[in-house]
Amino acid sequence: MSTELLTEQTVVAYLVEKAIISAADTAEVEVLTGGVSNVVLAITTKDKKLVLKQALAELKVAEKWEADQRRAIVEANAIALFHKLSPAQVPNLVFLDPDRFILILDRVPVGSTVWKTDLLDGVINSDVADILGTTLAHWHNFGETNKEARLQFMEDSLFEQLRIDPFYRFVAAKNDLLKPVINKLIKELEGDKTTIVHGDFSPKNIMVGMDDQVYILDFEVTHVGNPVFDLAFLLAHLLCKYFRTDDALQEKLLRTCADRFTSEYANIRPYADSLALHTALIALARVEGKSPVNYLDQAQQDALVIHTKGILGKGLNISVEALFEKRS
């Protein structure tokens, strides 16, 4: 059953009804863009700066992609947990409406930039990668050692709907020769229930404040699973941006981000030898999957496809450094 979606015109009345703001407040509403899975609205009053997210039943992509709206409840639980662990990096959860799949959280400081946009603009700060590697490793360690926390996120159909199917199975269906290695990687993900995994650890979900404070958002794919996925998901985005540029300095900085991210993580906990294979597959899915990136031209897409299929076709575990090497 579909749920009525909030709009710029209806959100203020909803917030007043739920006592999030007062009827006497003057509220400014802004539609935030960039996501494909939610209605996202920013609400500003004299005393509050909030972001409201409402989960969509069908994602806004070219291929048909349905997803359970209960992911809003999962995300709310994850925000509450990770805000306790990293209050400076994860905004506070203000409100959850489980019936309409709506959550409200404090907005990160105005003026913060999306790390994806920074990277595409050539503003590549590898200090951000350090923080992300350290933070992710601490989160994974926490999830691995806290059974009670893991119990909140054991239901993994959302990970199947939002990651395994559109990234792994969809690409396998297009590439018969790669099916054996992809099926092996799927088995590795599905057979590991080690820790709490973010599931969408991507530059589009990372914001950098004017004081270089790093904020991590969008926890709707949080689940108990294999931690290699979080590392591979971020590295795949860096790899896509690496293939987008021909600027030698930007290439070097993106390689440095990848190296420092994984090195800082490895200083705290080890990662799987299969990291490069998962990264190559996810990067390939950003061209051939259900949610392709929109910033690679045809020649760049072709180069990335050749590179990633070459790695997957050999099925060999390689280093992160070797992964970030273009072949002429």
TrEMBL record:
SMART domains cross-referenced by the UniProt entry: CHK
Signal peptide: none
Single GO MF annotation: protein kinase activity
Residues in CHK kinase-like domain copies: 102-267
SUPFAM superfamilies: Protein kinase-like (PK-like)
Family: Belongs to the methylthioribose kinase family.
Protein name: Unannotated protein
Record key words, sorted: ATP-binding, Kinase, Nucleotide-binding, Transferase
Gene3D superfamilies: 3.90.1200.10, Phosphorylase Kinase, domain 1
